[in-house]
Amino acid sequence: MGLALGSDVALVSKFDRKQYYYADLPKGYQISQFDEPLLCGGSVDVPMADGTLKKVGITRAHLEEDAGKNMHDGDGSLAGSTGSRTDLNRAGVPLLEIVTEPDLRSGEEAAEYGAEIRRIVRALGVSNGNMQEGSLRCDVNVSVRAAGSAVLGTKVEVKNMNSFSAMRAAIDHETKRQVALLESGRGDEIRQETRLWDEGSLTTRAMRAKEGLADYRYFPEPDLPPLVLTPDFIDACRDAMPELPRARRERYAALGLPRDDATFLTEDTDAGLYFDAVLAAGAPAKGAANWVMGDVAGWCKSEGVAWAELGERLSPGALAELVSLIEDDILSGKIGKQLLPSLLDGAGKGGGGEVKALAEREGLIQESDPEAVKAVVREAMAANPKQLEQYRGGKTKLRGFFQGACMKISGGTVNPKLLAQVLPAMLDGEEE
């Protein structure tokens, strides 16, 4: 993770004890890193909605142990209960805390930063990044200052945000709250404290006064030796680095994929790897992206099948063959959707001609012979003389009716592009 952030990785770092007298760590201290952390410096280039990159500096990233979770009546986590509870299941679990420079200027920027961090940890395999499971969490510090001032105001920490949308809303609310206090002459009410985000009321509320460094009384952890790394170990990590999200997005953009496609295929590493395998099997990029992000992703979600397991049901080669057959006008997109369930049910394990063979057995190969398509149009015209008379009388909207009739007669196999070329002239009587 440090290499991905561009941080300086310390060959020697140490652990410290941080006094922590809360019910969520009942042993009375937390193992953390203070003055000699594992990682220092670095930055993250965060993609924004307008297509720009926002550079967010990294102050440090250190290892520490997680605390438990306090739940209090009234905070939305103990519905129907009174009092407080403490969940200690995650207490002592190791985590990496990343501290940024004060470079973020809105809830939107912070949420996009969090999303990019999640993409990075997933790409590296250091975490699944699932916020709902606590695998990735974000606490934010909000302070405001007058325009033109170089001095940041009092810093307020906000916790209890379980999604990037909640992070965005919490920051924007807390910013407005502090600005309103300052503009009304009540700036002294902005205290260095920890506040909780209340999802129900969409407001922050005070939790406790924020401790300063002196309150924590750090001292070296006596039961753990320093963490010592070697240059060879770091070089081996660097050599094993996978493709990072930004590089993957740039590669997809070079293939002509729009930003939203590139973002989707970068969000889930396994989805991107599956897409890359479909490309490697010969599928055109945009066609492959449409199928992966559309029908295939929808099926995976509805059936609860992970992308890493999809290849056992639908091989990348089979999907590449399906996409290529559609691109070459051998199959229509509609027929492709009709074949997909069979492919996902086990008929798509190969890809060496199996898809075309399946379409041929089902009589679904697209009809692209001009004379055969004209014969279908003649049949549709003969079967609907009243509508033909109305069309030739000026009711040209009936062209869509005849397109549907042709598709029905052919079982959906007539080439829609060729049909669109020959149908108008035949309906007008210019070509029989």
Can you lay out the helices and strands and say which pair or pack?
Elements: H1 2-5, E1 8-9, E2 12-13, E3 16-19, E4 29-32, E5 39-40, E6 43-47, E7 53-65, E8 69-72, E9 84-87, E10 94-100, H2 107-124, E11 140-142, E12 156-159, H3 164-183, E13 193-198, E14 203-209, H4 213-216, E15 219-220, E16 227-228, H5 231-239, H6 245-254, H7 259-267, H8 269-280, H9 285-303, H10 307-310, H11 316-327, H12 333-347, H13 354-361, H14 370-383, H15 385-392, H16 399-410, H17 416-427
Parallel strand pairs: 12-13
Antiparallel strand pairs: 1-5, 2-16, 3-4, 3-15, 5-7, 6-7, 7-10, 8-9, 11-12, 13-14
Helix pairs in contact: 2-3, 6-7, 7-8, 8-9, 8-11, 14-16, 14-17, 16-17
Describe the protein.
With 432 residues, the protein is of the alpha+beta class. Among the domains are: 1-103 and 221-242, no CATH class; 244-361, no CATH class; 370-427, Orthogonal Bundle (Arc Repressor Mutant, subunit A). It is built from 17 helices and 16 strands. The protein is elongated. It starts with a helix and ends in a 5-residue tail after the last helix.
Question: What's the quick description here?
Answer:
Helix content is 44%, strand content 16%. With 432 residues, the protein is of the alpha+beta class. Among the domains are: 1-103 and 221-242, no CATH class; 244-361, no CATH class; 370-427, Orthogonal Bundle (Arc Repressor Mutant, subunit A), CATH 1.10.10.410.
